[in-house]
Amino acid sequence: KAGVTQTPRYLIKTRGQQVTLSCSPISGHRSVSWYQQTPGQGLQFLFEYFSETQRNKGNFPGRFSGRQFSNSRSEMNVSTLELGDSALYLCASSLSTGGADTFGSGTRLTVV
Amino acid sequence: GIQVEQSPPDLILQEGANSTLRCNFSDSVNNLQWFHQNPWGQLINLFYIPSGTKQNGRLSATTVATERYSLLYISSSQTTDSGVYFCAVLYSGAGSYQLTFGKGTKLSVIP
Fold this sequence. Notes:
The structure holds 2 protein chains of 2 kinds. Chain A is mainly β. Chain A contains no helices and 11 strands. Chain A is globular. By secondary structure, chain B is mainly β. Classes of the chains: A mainly beta, B mainly beta. The A-B interface holds A 33, 35, 42-45, 48, 55-59, 88, 90, 92, 97-103, 105-106 and B 1, 30-31, 33, 35, 41-45, 48, 86, 88, 90, 96-104.
């Protein structure tokens, strides 16, 4: 079966711009969670969506938002980009909420 | 918030050796997971283990929830085991569940 697909794989943006990342979960998985990974802060939970509703949220500012569509695909948006938003953004899909079953390969975002 | 500490931070092993990685957490948790991130950045879920012991091939994990720690055992290590091992706990705080990760143990297996 197909894995978790994240697009794009790499992205370069300028400070102040906004960006949208996409995550297509494994077929049948209704939960999608998002994570930020940086060398300084490590892996941090952003938020989780299940059946088009945000179920859980981490400690990130409102510039970070997301949504989930009826086919369980999810998008994450970051507005007013800052240099510190440069990171590997990972999504995971799961059968139920509260965990991370299978991760995608990630989107590497560089803000210049 | 909850604190998750992993030890050791770095580990170098000869191929064929065994190792034990530890994860301590500061509060009661709803669940615990172990992950492996390979050198190319791919994260793999190894175990869901809120309590008890599980085994999968050369890997096994034990969580003692009452004492707030978990252990990951790797036996007969292979070079493909290299990478970073993360422990993450599912914690309920401020009305929301969060998966909180430790800083990881970087394992290098040399032939």
